[in-house]
Amino acid sequence: MIKYIVLLMCFGLMGCSAVQPYVDTHSGVAGGRALRRSTPDRVAICFDEADMNTLQQMADTECAKTSRKAVYNTTVPFSCSLITPSTAYFDCK
Fold first, then answer.
1. Residues forming a β-bridge with 43
2. Is 17's pLDDT higher than 70?
3. DSSP state of 57
4. Percentage of the chain surpassing pLDDT 90?
5. Residue 27 and residue 17: Cα distance in Å, rounded?
6. Given this model, what pLDDT does residue 12 score?
7. Which terminus, N or C, of the chain has the lesser number of Cβ atoms within 10 Å?
């Protein structure tokens, strides 16, 4: 029982801490296909609470690597991790 209380307290403290958004470069395999969330043509940024200007700047930095500008595409809730649940997608054009 004590283990569960300690675990709940840890999760509670994590919820109080601010986590910075980050470019999701996670890659994996599903159905025999290689999956990659961020590619040179699309930037995926995981975030909890961030203003759109911050996300745009991060995407612009990634797209600048291929001499392009980031254009907002969509936000998908509950698609990243527990502490950064939302993913904003930007297309490099």
1. 90
2. no
3. H
4. 52
5. 26
6. 55
7. N
Amino acid code (one letter) for 26? H
DSSP for residue 13:
H
- 60 and 69 Cβ atoms separated by less than 8 Å: yes
d(CA 44, CA 53): 15
DSSP at 74: E
Residues in the chain, how many? 93
- C-alpha distances in angstroms, 43 versus 13, 17, 59, 69? 30, 25, 6, 11
pLDDT, one tens digit per residue, over 61-87 is 999 999 999 999 999 999 888 898 999
Dihedral (Cα; 78, 50, 91, 32), 10-degree rounding: -30
